Amino acid sequence: MEYFVFDMDGVLVDSEPMHQKIILEVFQLKGIPFSSDYVQTLTGMSALPMWEKVQRESEHTETPQQLLEFHRAYFFDRLPSLEVVAVEGVKEVLALLQKRGSHIALASSSGRKLIDIFIEQVGIASYFEVIVSGDDVRYSKPNPEIFAKVAAWYELPAEQFCVIEDSTNGVAAAKGAGMHCVGFQNPLSGGQDLSKADLVIHSMSELLQCLKKRIL
């Protein structure tokens, strides 16, 4: 395959623990009685659908939009003190794909502002031909809309793409779009069920070897 689509959080950058920590802090500040185990079930979701789910299930008095705005302001206030690093080995994967002429896209539930900050921070922004963010879709993963938009941008059928995802929601979205999917079992992303992926890897070096052997 020569068309690859990368999720960001937990695949390109090890930011999932940071996101989960911030969400849990917001829960505590807002008196929402959910645990870190619950937070892990939200991995891969866009911000507004996530807060709609939280508000509905917690029966919190504020609206999802109010909770989202508080979360966003709190996150960007904390961001200067937070450090994000590239997932080990992912730069080598991106460099190999670029060298062999593959097309590389990014499809993340995060907002475009945050995507731009993170990929610039870790020095990988130049690899991506197209970026589709949570701002660009109506429906969050596990809905396949975000991956359908990538395929539409290239004007190609979904089966020509290979998605690399680290979350249950992300894998479901990729398979729902009709794309091949590699599940990356990143221990920092929590106990994600990747059983619906076509292939499960446990490190980027494993993905690199698959690419070198032309398994993908």
TrEMBL record:
Whether Lipid metabolism counts among this entry's keywords is no
The enzyme class is hydrolase
Q: Which cofactor does it need?
A: Mg(2+)
Entry's InterPro entries?
Beta-PGM-like, HAD-like_sf, HAD-SF_hydro_IA, HAD_2, HAD_sf, PGP-like_dom2
- Return any one Pfam family short name: HAD_2
The entry assigns this protein to a family as follows:
Belongs to the HAD-like hydrolase superfamily. CbbY/CbbZ/Gph/YieH family.
Entry protein name = Haloacid dehalogenase
The record lists the lineage as: Bacteria, Pseudomonadati, Bacteroidota, Flavobacteriia, Flavobacteriales
